[in-house]
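Fill in residues.
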């Protein structure tokens, strides 16, 4: 009976304390509702104020940070109203102690967060750029505070943590509008090197995808290969990967047609077999009969 009486009294105290907190709880709910409205208004204002001045990714960063700041202030005020003994100094002290434990527990999250802020402030990598980092290559579709979305050429989406892009070498293939590309073209040893070079140059310069305004086409003899003299053929074209592939296709086809028209041989490997002893050659019976019939 004593245990039952004690339990009932404790439940009554809990219910009485809950009822006493109802007004404060209602006020806290109102504060959180007002916080939501203020955060919505501030984010909308920041989006309009920075719409024409900042990149979309950087604009999104400021919008999110402004919303987070308003929510932190609103939650602190609601907590103080709900628990009057909780002062701002105690709350900040608790946050300071808790932030150490949270920092160790979520080290990777904060690392990606800080890396994302630095990446968003960079001007080198933008949405729409083609990048390559740690065997990941594709088009940047979205840059958020934590990660970056990269669409690979085969259509697959890769979500890359920002810390990976920040700590490793990052190649931005579309940083400029033009990019140089190279192929190797070989001609037979019996062909004239200077004439072959002129034929290849004219064929490359005639291609629509080759930029020749202020970027000269370079045709340089590279080496004596096993069956050919190899030329390094270098030209400038668009920087996007699809531009590179289309231009290489056009140039290879044009060079092949030009060399064939000029009668210049594009060699393939020749193989000569030698034997230590002479080989015996014989004919089958059918071959012998056909040979006698032809001679008779």
């Amino acid at each position: 009976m004593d245990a039952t009486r004690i339990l009932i009294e404790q439940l009554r105290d809990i219910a009485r304390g809950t009822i006493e907190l109802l007004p404060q709880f209602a006020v806290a709910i109102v504060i959180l509702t007002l916080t939501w409205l203020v955060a919505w208004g501030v984010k909308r204002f920041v989006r309009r104020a920075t719409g024409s001045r900042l990149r979309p990714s950087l604009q999104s960063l400021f919008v999110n940070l402004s919303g987070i700041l308003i929510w932190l202030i609103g939650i602190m005020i609601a907590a103080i109203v709900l628990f009057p003994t909780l002062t701002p100094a105690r709350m900040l002290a608790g946050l300071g102690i808790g932030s150490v434990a949270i920092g160790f527990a979520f080290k990777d999250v904060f690392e990606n967060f800080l890396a994302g802020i630095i990446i968003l402030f960079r001007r080198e990598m933008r949405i729409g750029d083609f990048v390559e980092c740690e065997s990941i290559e594709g088009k940047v579709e979205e840059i958020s505070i934590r990660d970056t979305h990269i669409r690979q050429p085969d259509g697959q989406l890769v979500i890359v943590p920002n810390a990976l892009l920040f700590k490793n070498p990052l190649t931005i293939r579309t940083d400029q509008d033009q990019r140089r590309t190279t192929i190797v073209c070989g001609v037979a040893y019996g062909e004239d090197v200077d004439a072959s070079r002129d034929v290849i140059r004219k064929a490359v310069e005639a291609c629509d995808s080759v930029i020749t305004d202020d970027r000269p086409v370079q045709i340089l003899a590279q080496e004596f290969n096993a069956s050919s003299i190899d030329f390094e053929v270098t030209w400038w074209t668009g920087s996007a990967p699809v531009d590179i592939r289309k231009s290489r296709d056009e140039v290879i086809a044009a060079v092949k047609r030009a060399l064939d028209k000029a009668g210049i041989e594009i060699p393939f490997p020749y193989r000569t077999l030698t034997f230590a002893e002479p080989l015996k050659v014989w004919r089958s019976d059918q071959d012998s009969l056909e040979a006698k019939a032809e001679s008779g």
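The mean pLDDT is 81.
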